[in-house]
Design a protein that fits this description.
Keywords: Signal. This protein is α+β, with helices and mostly antiparallel strands and 353 residues long. Helix content is 29%, strand content 24%. The strands form 5 sheets. A 9-stranded mixed sheet has the order 2-14-13-11-9-8-5-4-3, with helices on both faces. Helix 4 (142-154) packs across helix 6 (180-194).
């Protein structure tokens, strides 16, 4: 058996509600790490974003720990295949975050692109009433599952995930996506855990529509395989409210992070229920008349599609991220990893030295 490394998740530092993101490292990672990975899926050349995410990580470690463990982000493969169920092409990529010297613990990012025309898809193409059984339990949207299977099986993503799992047996697989890409990321994360393809997963989605029913949403969400499961919602983004829970059996998985504003740096947000994906105190508290597609396109002040296509340029512009106050623990005993996890000094030395 491998030696178990003790770590403290950044989530253990986040209890206040609502919160302001200058004091929370996890929010900076959502803004400048996970969201750019999602945006990169919209580009025909995700390396542009990956390179700038790397620059941001380098700057982050310069001010957060004074220790640079020589992380690198490498594009493993990009996938593109026609998806008739979305009336669009499905696209995504796999990337390796070599966060230690021998690579055995390298986190793997698996990212999915959202549809090209949000309004047209959700208003005219998606028939959410078509639901089919899911391998991990419950029922999911047939169109989302068909699209996922196209890129997962027919485009070769599953085979690459298996290859990477065998090469990096201690790795966490992090599934990421915006819009319909978030739905496919959810299906991917649930597939690998329910079928035993990998041991630990993280899931980060932005503007994800409801993907399946309550049984699907609850399947394995709190099990030992889930390192993290988080849905970010921008203010009155309409897509996370589709289809309506009032006239369907669809249900969201945990846990929502809701910004009831423009998501600017320093804006207040709410970290919602860790047991109920449909927390009535979060975005579900909005009146339906306020919901819109404009908020779906913009996350953390960036047009997600254009941001990814243009290469996530602001991450490499020389501005340093905010230094954080971590007085709750002895500063000398902490190390912030590129996963957004605070490791003990002993775990850091085991991983990076």
């Amino acid at each position: 058996m491998i030696k178990v490394l003790i770590f403290f998740s950044l989530f253990s530092l986040c209890f206040a509600d609502p919160m302001e993101d200058l004091t929370d490292p996890m929010v900076d990672y959502l803004r400048n790490h996970y969201m750019p990975f999602a945006a990169a899926a919209y580009s025909d050349n995700p390396n542009k974003c990956l390179s700038n995410i790397q620059k941001w990580i380098d700057k982050y470690h310069d001010i957060s720990s004074g220790n640079h463990p020589n992380e690198t982000i490498s594009l493993y493969r990009q996938y593109k295949i026609k998806c008739p169920s979305l009336n669009d092409y499905c696209s995504g990529y796999t990337a390796i975050l070599n966060a230690n010297k021998n690579g055995t613990n390298a986190p793997i990012v698996v990212a999915f692109k959202g549809t090209a025309n949000f309004e047209n898809f959700f208003q005219n193409i998606w028939n959410h009433n078509e639901m089919v059984p899911f391998v991990g339990g419950g029922k999911v949207s047939k169109q989302f599952l068909d699209a996922f299977n196209n890129i997962w099986i027919n485009a070769g993503m599953k085979d690459d995930v298996l290859t990477l799992r065998n090469k990096y047996p201690l790795s966490i697989f992090i599934f990421i996506g915006h819009s319909t890409g978030g739905a496919m990321a959810s299906l991917a994360a649930s597939t690998v855990t329910s079928t035993g393809l990998t041991e630990f997963v993280g899931l980060f989605t932005f503007g994800q529509p409801r993907t399946g029913d309550a049984k699907y949403a609850s399947a394995d969400r709190l099990g030992p395989s889930w390192w993290s499961s988080d849905r970010v919602v921008h203010n009155a983004d309409i897509v996370p409210h589709l289809p309506s829970s009032n006239d369907s059996t669809y249900y969201h998985h945990i846990s929502e992070w809701w910004w009831p504003n423009d998501m600017a740096v320093g804006a207040n947000y709410t970290q919602c229920s860790s047991v109920n994906g449909e927390d009535p105190k979060c975005s579900n508290s909005l009146d339906d008349s306020t919901l819109n597609f404009d908020d779906h396109k913009m996350y953390f002040g960036r047009n997600v599609t254009e941001y990814g296509i243009n290469g996530c340029t602001d991450l490499g512009n020389g501005k340093h991220p905010k230094a954080y106050n971590l007085k709750a623990m002895p500063k000398s005993s902490l190390f912030v990893s590129p996963l957004g996890t605070i490791f003990t000094k002993e775990a850091k030395n085991e991983l990076f030295n």
